[in-house]
Amino acid sequence: MKTSLATAVCFCAMAIGTIACKNSSSNPETESTSSAAQQSASNNKAGDSATLTLPAGFSAATVAENLSGPRHLVVTPQNDIYVKLSDAKNGKGIVILHVDGNGKATTTGGFGDYGGTGITIKNGYLYASSNDDVYRYKLDANNRVINENQPEKIATGLTNKGMHNSKSLVLDNAGNIYVNIGAPSNVCAEQGNDKKGMQPCPILETAGGIWMFKADKQAQKQNDGVHYATGLRNVVGMDWNNVTNSLFVMQHGRDNLHNASPQNYTEQQSAELPAECMYELHQGANAGWPYMYYDQNQHKKLVNPEYGGDGKKEADASYIDPVVAFPGHMAPDGLLFYTGNMFPEKYKNGAFIAFHGSWNRAPEPQKGYLVAFVPFNNGKPSGNWEIFADGFTGGQEFMQPGKARHRPCGLAQGPDGSLYVSDDAGGTIYRITYHQ
Amino acid sequence: MSKHFLILLLLGCTSAFAQTKQTTTATGKQLYAQYCLTCHQEDGEGVPNMNPPLTQTSYVLGDKKKLIAWVLKGSGNEKVPIDGNTYSNNMPPQSALKDDEIAKILTYIRSNFGNKASAVSTAEVKAARETVK
């Protein structure tokens, strides 16, 4: 396990990122250099989009702006982008963009009268989700949807109680689709006594986990699916790792440790804890929510205070360990294992994570509006996580999450190996490229 | 049902239980910071799409009985749009707070963040509590 050095490097990287984006904010026309390894890249400065700070050799361009809440997205070999919107706009919850040779996208269509988050392509079908259902659309040889108005409904009536209701999607190579069903709760506390956790937590029967469905079978109810993994509070970013042939997810960790147990957690600890965790999931995995959380500083699974924890008491060892533990509250909404050839070798098969940024850090400033990277070798992290793209919020510190004008959400890989990042707060799609 | 029914969805989304030693002297601002601020934020603007604002909304400025009842009962999983927006997080019930604490918090909210509405008294909270469950 990486120890305190990893944490120190992480926070150092965050500090560097902050400095870099402050510089670029104050003087956007000037390339700012914060270290040998990190330098700012100029964007196409159209409209309101952010100037991103990236490692040397990378640059970011704004390919689309003013979309309405773009969540996840997928890019076809023909350079069409399907973008899932959080809410349907003018009756269209999926927008189609086409990227031209100059890297600019134009809207070429839209369909699907439902909002949602999940969207992906596999084996000639586009899969997309509302917050209740999973649909699929047959694609033609050019990856265009054949009939926009008549999708097959693959899964229907999934648990949706408002909170943590997005249904992210990913498929394996064996005809299965995996859907997150988030827990509508922070830590499964009793109604009317939010310092006491329910034991056992009844929410876990229908939410707080990953369900697996047949990718080609219509009208599956939640009970028809396989309850693939449990103990996950809420997952938004997920991807299939083709090196390990397994599912990886990013969990949104619990909130409000200080309020839950002021004697055991300071406000500052509550702002940094618990970890946002990357997990590798095999069938039957239990990540331990709501009974435990992962402390990225102690590198331990600890019992939640609502279940008798005190910041030291260790949880049942049978709960799975995270693959990577990030600082708290940064809200990972996108995960992508990079398989392209454009980026340097270091990035091959590594993980990009789009962090939406925090809201639950008061009285500390909010943070974590960034895209992170974790190098992988043979299916395991081969180094510490680092900030890959920063500057989405312009570099000023702020307390109010509403001041974050751009928030990373979805990630997609272009056919040339470029990386697309959606921003559901500002409506921007960025394309990050590498040039030697 | 009020269109603005969820306005206090997350009011005091933090702990439901008072630290009794602090309650008698704490100000509304201090109590707000302790129980409400992490969700509704220092400026009462909430968090877009997640936690509703407390600024200039008819639910905060309107019927006090309904407002107090909302704080006592929390949101459950009920989702009702507020001015066309829905907010995803659930607000836990705050019935463990004392009457005077809720009165101070609501008075603080109704007279800050650009709000100019009348105070909420301890007696009003007490009366409302008797009508809740």
Give the count of helical stretches of chain A: 3
Please estimate the helix content of chain A. Answer: under 10%
What is the helix fraction of residues of chain B, given as a range? 25-40%
The major β-sheet of chain A equals: 5 strands, mixed
Quote the CATH topology of chain B: Cytochrome Bc1 Complex, Chain D, domain 2
Question: How would you name the CATH homologous superfamily of chain B?
Answer: Cytochrome c-like domain
The share of residues in extended strands of chain A comes to 35-45%
Based on CA atoms alone, the radius of gyration of chain A comes out at 21 Å
Mean pLDDT score of chain A? 90
User: What sort of overall outline of chain B do the alpha carbons produce when their principal axes are compared?
Assistant: globular
Cα(first) to Cα(last) distance of chain B is 18 Å
Number of domains of chain B: 1
Q: How many helices of chain B in DSSP terms?
A: 7
Please state the oligomeric state of the protein chains shown: heterodimer
Strand content of chain B: under 5%
Q: What average pLDDT do the residues of chain B reach?
A: 81
Order of helices and strands of chain B: HHHHHHH
Shape summary of chain A: globular
